[in-house]
Amino acid sequence: xxxTVLTISGLRVEIAxxxxxxxxxxALASGEITALVxxxxxxxxxxxxxxxxxxxxxxxxxxxxxxxxxxxxxxxLLGLSPYRLRRLRGAAIGYVFQESQAAxxxxxxxxxxxxxxxxxxxxxxxxxxxxxxxxxxxxxxxxPEQLWxxxxxxLSGGQAQRVxxxxxxALDPRLLIADEVTSALDPVTQAGVxxxxxxxxxxxQRAVLLITHDLAVAGRWADRLAVLDGGRxxxxxxxxxxxxxxxxxxxxxxxxxxxxxxxxGDRARADVPPGMAGERA
Length: 281
Ligand SMILES: Nc1ncnc2c1ncn2[C@@H]1O[C@H](COP(=O)(O)OP(=O)(O)OP(=O)(O)O)[C@@H](O)[C@H]1O
Fold this sequence. Notes:
Layout: E1 4-15, E2 18-29, E3 33-37, H1 44-52, E4 59-70, E5 73-76, H2 82-91, E6 93-96, H3 100-103, H4 110-120, H5 125-138, H6 144-147, H7 157-169, E7 175-179, H8 187-204, E8 207-211, H9 215-221, E9 224-229, E10 232-238, H10 239-244, H11 249-258
Parallel strand pairs: 3-8, 3-9, 6-7, 7-8
Antiparallel strand pairs: 1-2, 1-4, 4-5, 9-10
Helix pairs in contact: 4-5, 5-7
The chain binds adenosine-5'-triphosphate.
């Protein structure tokens, strides 16, 4: 049974007096991928960064982002100290960026990155290699021993993205934020990475926030869509339904511009599974 992992209420983000996110509400459920879609500059990345405590210098976030920690406990991510947020990132919140190769330290091997992450979260030294190898395997790298000693420059773009995914999920976070993670990948590698995200969500009772400007990707892989325009969510609901029958003119424009077909066929074509009709936020 799914439960709410993250509840964002009234999120506002300002930079230099400009309000860039303006009263955003969004709930993410376990076992599901929620795609945050919208045109460039609509505030997708700022939303994700606010939740993860990774806003740029000078940015201020207000509102609430309640992360469910199980057993009736929850924490407001917007009210935590930088130290507490650092502890939560990795352990409870995983974050993967588009530029994974650039995010990896060029002088540290794949194994070194994993060891560091696991060490930072108090995994005993004797467990780190096996945990790291398991995370790489789960991220879709079938022979992780061969990559353990590789440096980032020796990886393909797809391999680097999977290593970044392994790093973000090595501690089995309840919330995974994937910010344009497949934009730079070829379609086959892209599908492989998105499949891993979905499997991880289902198996780990994890909530995934998928940030993408690609409506076809969102429609095919996300359970739910939230459409952002000018720092506000203008529409949200089951992806197939939003794509098939957009309620807001901006969503309709986005669907038209993307060329995503909305009749019959696969999920990108917006099949509405039985029982989902009418369930619109
Ligand atoms: N460090 C910053 N300083 C000033 N303005 C910023 C900063 N970062 C983002 N912005 C502004 O905030 C708004 C939202 O940016 P954001 O990066 O969240 O958009 P996005 O929807 O993720 O776009 P894209 O799809 O192009 O990545 C934009 O107007 C952007 O110019």
